[in-house]
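Record 1 of the preview.
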Amino acid sequence: MDTVEPSEDGPFLDRLAAARLTARELDVARFYEDNLPGAALLNLEEVCRAVGVSSATVGRFARKLGYPDFRAMSRSLRTGVREELSLPVERLRRMHDDAAPLPRSVLEQRVGTAQEVLAGCSSAIDTEAFNRACALVSDTDRPLYLGAVATGRPLMQYFGLLLSYLRGGVTILDGTDHWAHALAGLEADAVVLAATFDRHPAPVEALLRLAGQRGATSILLTNRRTGPLVPLADILLTTPLATQEAMFRTRVATLIVLEAILDAVAAEHPEHLRAESVEEIFPLMRGYL
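->
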């Protein structure tokens, strides 16, 4: 597959994912992946000492990412870390340092951010990877496991509930203390769909590693193109990385991709028997008036 050249104005992690690097430059890349945001504050000498490479190697690394030199990369990286990799509590502190916007502008800003993220979804998601993921999720002969933590879990529960209209054999992994029990029967014919946002949860790493050990096929839906989880997944679906100053970043791209997978599965399963059975049971449960 051809490598895309880094964008001159793209975020650091996007540049990193697109760059063609030598083995020593990859060592520098992994150092930044593993140590951001703290690594953004290090000077050239400190980076060289931490990675065990020369200043020339770090300089070439910076230029391959599209920066004129290390100083320009460091300056951009510090700004980017503030926007892209900050924690919610840090963004909350900055909000209190600024003048509070009018209530109407808050809604406008949130809608505008969501629209910006959605506009980038089509280009961010690899079409071939998306089609492969949809085919795997549609395959009723393969057990499907859905895993996410924190804010990703309710989104995955929503996805799994609607998916149950279309197919069986879906296991929605509940609290991580129950994952071992639910995954005891994971075998090579299974498909694992995991979702993360901003961070790299240890339970999801363990889930992807287990899938690899058992020979199962894994799909990772994330807004991070690099990091420790990416190499563990067989199929990567990467949503755009939102740049916003609000305390909580929008998860709208994750939701839209999951709903698009539902649309693809529905198109693959035109028969209505399972969905009709679900609707027939609703009145018996007296769930709706």
